[in-house]
Amino acid sequence: MKDTALRIAGFKDSIFGVISRLARENNAVNLGQGFPDFDGPEWLKDIAYKKMQEGHNQYAPFHGTPSCRQEVSNYYKKFYNLNYNQESEVTITVGATEAIYLVITALINPGDEVVVLEPFYDSYVASIKMAGGIPKPVTMHAPDFTIDQKELEAAITSQTKLLILNNPHNPTGKVWSKEELQIVANVAIKNDLYVLSDEVYEFLVFDGVRHIPTATLEGMFERTITISSAGKTFGLTGWKIGWICANQKVTNACRLVHQYVTFAVSTPMQEAVAEGLKKLPDYLPGFVSLYKGKRDYFYEEMKKLGFEFAIPKGTYFMMVPIKKHTDLKDVDYAMKLIREKQVATVPPSAFYLKSTEGENFLRFCFAKKEETLQGAIKNLHR
Ligand SMILES: Cc1ncc(COP(=O)(O)O)c(C=O)c1O
What we know:
Layout: H1 15-25, E1 29-30, H2 42-53, H3 66-80, E2 90-94, H4 95-107, E3 113-118, H5 122-130, E4 134-139, H6 149-155, E5 160-166, H7 178-190, E6 194-198, E7 224-229, H8 230-233, E8 241-245, H9 248-261, H10 267-278, H11 280-304, E9 317-321, H12 330-341, E10 343-344, E11 361-365, H13 370-381
Parallel strand pairs: 1-10, 3-4, 3-5, 5-6, 6-7
Antiparallel strand pairs: 2-8, 7-8, 9-11
Helix pairs in contact: 1-12, 2-10, 3-10, 4-5, 4-9, 11-13
Bound molecules: pyridoxal-5'-phosphate.
């Protein structure tokens, strides 16, 4: 048989598949998988069911149902004072993952360079490679996961077209400050770059910290492509409703790809998400306090186990330094924890292309039921 396409050459099953299999074989508590092990809100599931009963079951308009696009546009206005025209600047996608693929496919030619800040969400680099682009990693340095402006500037060449930023940040739990975002904005403006701002954890911020969308920085609205996902905001990752907010030119380009990749997104789920977005002001305080409780519990317990690190201000991840506990690198230590303590985590070195800093950490996901977190802590004490 003839070979498969070159664009996927070098892709292999990720470390996460190996970890998940080992976790199952060893009956480990799984804090590796980056999603809740409990359901999202009943009221929203009821709305989705009602939308199906009301007959919202055929293909949606390909760029999203009017109500879903309208409510996305409304919340950007309400929360951030950003104006996106729902007709020409908002596109509904199959989760943020499709959004990432569309943006990169729509913008990147073979040979174009894309700056990715590492540790990165793994689909960025895969999408860049499928488009024939070249990922250019810039490291967010531990312990605060800050970027160095000089290193960022050094990564830019005449071939650089796009920079990808994730805020609040998976896997570190970092929420970017205005000053840090300004470094990215300055470099993007100076070099005429697009910025893909992945803000799927925009509402998961704690301790009074404010999430600042990249598009709100001066001079950044036109060049920023903002993506987000109802899966994270409502704790319903399986619904896979995401969106892209971008200027008309980029929106048109993304829609051209979207029409041939997925064509349209689940109609009843979009209709339900539209209702959910309307209720954000009532819903968010309970949502944030639920996850804050989990973060606080897990952080305190990890401290008792001797792990020392700053409490993350956003997302449902903790990037935990392991060097005090082992001489092993992250992958081997993750395997050891599964086999000897029955706790599964993610070794973050898979999220780096350049730096080896990821070898000194494990990523724990605390979006888990109380008993799951308690079980993990009990096992770690064994
Ligand atoms: C940073 C980041 N971006 C994008 C996604 C994908 O989101 P979705 O499930 O909506 O495709 C995730 C999911 O874990 C993520 O952590």
